[in-house]
Amino acid sequence: MNSLVKDAKKAGERVGLISDTITIHGGKPLQGRIRVRGAKNLATKAMVAALLGSSTSTLRDVPNISDVKVVRDLLEVHGVIVTETAPGVLEMDPRNVLQAHFAEIDAHAGSSRIPILFCGPLLHKLGEAFIPDLGGCRIGNRPINFHLDALRAFGAVVDKSYEGIHLTAPDGLKGANIEFPYPSVGATEQVLLTAVLAKGTTELKNAAIEPEIMDLIAILQKMGAIISVEPNRVILIEGVEELGGYLHTALFDRNEAASWASAALATRGDIFVEGAHQIELMTFLNVFRKAGGAFDIEDDGIRFYHPGTPLKPVNVETDVHPGFMTDWQQPLIVALTQAEGRSVVHETVYENRLGFTKALVEMGADIVVHEHGLDGDYRRVPRRDLEQAAVIEGPTELRAADVHVPDLRGGFSYLIAALAAEGTSTVSNMGIISRGYEHIIDKLEQLGADFTFEAQDR
Ligand code: EPU
């Protein structure tokens, strides 16, 4: 281990300062074993669910990432006692939930989008909620209209001010009939977390059904909720008077697993991802195989590797579950720069999730982004007005470069590109990666990456 890494580790919660920069000597396959823990996109929501209980909840396999810290801080400013009883095990006691001050909530909300999910639980517990301006990755507009419309349908009064959004529920919250224009993950979670304690039944049409949502429903059922998932994206929630706590092990992070899989492919490497399960990754595994990647599914994880034969181009369209996740396309695109031929990736979930490819082009990739997508044989069904397409011609040799992390998944892609490229690259703004990738520095080390990491305390 180099001394810079040691210094960085001493600092404790490393990789969290936006000035953190990693210097990578690339061109070496990533090889070894790493473990993925609970999903960022489940653990954070499960923590919010704990607010709804009348007794303590315990969540296991919680990743040590900054989005979890944001939610923990927000729970604590609202009076929830959060204790880490063992590494990755959080106990949350919500028996004394209290009103927090605007400024305090604002200070702790950070750049996360999770605070909006506090609305329903706080309205139930306190009759009022405040949501500051939301952050999250800059991958599109990311409006919250579905959330606010749903909360209004439950009977909440929404007041927008320059500081954020203030919500009250003068007559309590009542079950509602809601239909989303699009199956939004966050808005579905909003409805679940609000409907479980609302008076009467809620019917949600065009709901998201991602595995993380199913895991959240499982948690709510453990707490005493009555939720049925019906055919055709309909979810029925019968409100109950009270919920208890839960004991749950978070679903593994399939986005992190897919990211390491793409890293193995792009660097001609071999990575065993402990904790990865087949079912939640089925769509990814099909594309990985079509692109020429190999995998072995074991009971305790999945081995992803480059088989030594040329990679093949693929056509991919991101979509809601069970489609190919938008979060998977960015790391995969780096691997596709090494495939023999033309790949096309259509992004249909966010309107600005291909901007990260600019830096890959500077590194030698041949990628052209079509702002309004492409017609013709590349498409199955046009999904949305906002779609864009990336056309990737390969194989191209990647050159070392100095790159700056733009967003979580784009940032991981830059890491992969730098690891695949011959020569020395720097990747700055590593702190963003710590929002969703646990112990990234340790994991790179475990996989034999050649790098130095400089933590610049400010
Ligand atoms: N949308 C609206 N109005 C809304 C909400 C969503 O128009 O009120 C639109 C969005 O603009 C977007 C689409 O609906 O075009 C899908 O957004 P969704 O609400 O499903 O996304 P999200 O809940 O904000 C979560 C994950 C994302 C992941 C998406 C899609 C979390 C914290 N984030 O976002 O994860 O890409 O679902 O699966 O769960 C990541 O982990 O890097 C990440 C961005």
UniProtKB/TrEMBL annotation:
Catalytically driven reaction(s): phosphoenolpyruvate + UDP-N-acetyl-alpha-D-glucosamine = UDP-N-acetyl-3-O-(1-carboxyvinyl)-alpha-D-glucosamine + phosphate
ANK repeat extents: 340-372
Name by which UniProt lists this protein: UDP-N-acetylglucosamine 1-carboxyvinyltransferase
Keywords: ANK repeat, Cell cycle, Cell division, Cell shape, Cell wall biogenesis/degradation, Cytoplasm, Peptidoglycan synthesis, Pyruvate, Transferase
Database matches in PANTHER family: UDP-N-ACETYLGLUCOSAMINE 1-CARBOXYVINYLTRANSFERASE
Entry's localization field: Cytoplasm
Function in brief: Cell wall formation. Adds enolpyruvyl to UDP-N-acetylglucosamine.
Highest taxon listed in the record's lineage: Bacteria
Enzyme class per UniProt: transferase
Positions annotated to bind phosphoenolpyruvate: K40, N41
The Enolpyruvate transferase domain, residue ranges: 25-444
One of the Pfam families matching this protein, by short name: EPSP_synthase
InterPro entries, per database record: Ankyrin_rpt, Enolpyruvate_Tfrase_dom, Enolpyruvate_Tfrase_sf, MurA_subfamily, RNA3'P_cycl/enolpyr_Trfase_a/b, UDP_GlcNAc_COvinyl_MurA
Main location: cytoplasm
